Amino acid sequence: MIDYRYIEIEYFKEKGFLILSFNRPNNMNAFNYALTSEFCDALRTVIKENSINCMIITGKGKTFSVGGDIREFKEYADPVASMAKLAAKLHEGIRLIKSIKIPIVAAINGPCFGAALGYACSCDLRYCNEKATFGAAFTGIGLSPDSSTSFHLPKVVGYSLASEMILLNRILNSQEAQSYGLVNKIFLSNDDFIEDVKNIASQLGTGPIKALQSSKNLIKNSYLNDLETHLEEEAKNIEKCAGAEDFLEGLNAFLEKRRPNFKQKN
To answer: Cβ distance 189 to 180 under 8 Å?
Structure first.
C-alpha cells in the first residue's frame, strides 16, 4: 500500500468498505496541489480494488475541508497558471469520483467549504455531525466555483438556494443543511460520528453489490435520460441482477425470514 502524506486510507475488508481521509488537520484539510494529487492517486487505487463495495470520504481532525488553501494562493508567483493547475487536478478528482461504480458516502465532520463542498455533493450519500457548516465561499475571495460545485449543488439543494450560497456566500449550519436536503442525516454523537457512518458503510459494503451498483447508475442517469430510455435501462439492469447469486440469496432469506448473506464481490 502506498504511504501518502496528505491522504489516509483505512480498509475494513470484512465489512466491504474503506475510509479515505483528507489528512492535513493542522491546515483544516485545505486542498493544495500535493493533497489533491494524492487524492486522485488514491481514487485510482480504489477503482482497481475488487474487494471493496463502499467508500467513505472524510477529513481528519475536526474539519472535512475548508476547500482551497488560501495561504498558498497568496504565495503563488503566477496566480493564473497555479490556479489553473490546481483546478485541473481538482477536476480530475471529480471525474474519478463519478467514475467509481460503488456507493460513496461523505462523512462531513466539520466545516465543508469551497471545492470540498463540490466534492461532497458529488458523493451518493452525505452525513454530518452537529458542528458541520457548509458554504461555497468562492465569490468571497473573487473567484467563481470549481470542483463541480456549480454543477452538483443546484441539483442537490435547488437553483435558488445554490444561487444564494454561491452568489451571496450564504453559510448553512447542520440543521439547515438537512432541511434543504444537502445532507441525509445529522448524527448527534459528535465523538462517535465516524462510527455511525461506518455502520451505514457496513450495510452497503455487505449488500448486494450488483444491485447497488446498478441502482447507483440508474439514479445518476435519471438526470440524463428520457423516460423511454430510462425504462429500457431499468429493464436491462433488473435482468442482470436477476442472474446474480445475490438475488437467489435475497429470495431465500426473505422466505426463510432471516437476514441475507450477500457474498458477491465487486
So the answer is: no
